[in-house]
Amino acid sequence: MIGFDLPVGRSDGADDGRADKERTEDTGGDEDGRFDPSDAFVPERLPEPTSWLTEGEATVLTGESHVETRAMARAAFEERGVRDATFGYVLTKLDRDRNHPDAGFRFARDGDTLRVVFTATTAFCPQGGALALATFRALNAEGDRHEYDVVRVRVDETYHASEGVNDRLTDAEREFRETGRLPGGDGDGERVERDDARPQDASAVDDGHGGRWP
Q1: 1-40: per-residue pLDDT in tens?
Q2: What is the rounded CA–CA span in Å between residue 121 and residue 108?
Q3: Which partner for 95 in 10, 103, 104, 207 could form a disulfide, CB atoms 3.0-4.6 Å apart?
Q4: Do the strands 150-155 and 89-90 form a parallel or antiparallel pair, or are they unpaired?
């Protein structure tokens, strides 16, 4: 079993009241102009797509497709408690934070797989690895919210520990394909019981990221 630190935020779906408040507030921009509207795709305030997102026949999502995928991720993160501890909001809101135009998420469709790259606000963000793992866990645990068999996640290569983080994410992905089980901080993990989480051939997981967890 792969061992992980507990991801940032609550992973048990518990709601401490902040999620309901954010669902109300997170529907548009804001008065001081810090956030782009939730239904807007603003590429100049998003990270550039990485080469991993464009490998093979994968297609980077833009426009409405990006917005819809971000909304799906937000719902999954709200359910699973994936929040940025520094800013105190659900992690997908980083995508719209004008104070951090190079941070957030980019997505790509690769057949029945969704590829996700997370870029932290700084190269040495102490939450970077935990947030990437929390993203992987939440989006695969909440598979009923999307049409993909598996969601693959990587942290952007600008992150100082990207090689190690991505190696651990690849291991987690392989285990999920083989067993339907997601990593957990308690050492037991969580088994996802749904049709599209059936065990798959581990050879489907590529090692094109390179790296080891520090």
Answers
A1: 333 343 444 433 334 334 434 443 454 555 468 999 999 9
A2: 21
A3: 104
A4: unpaired
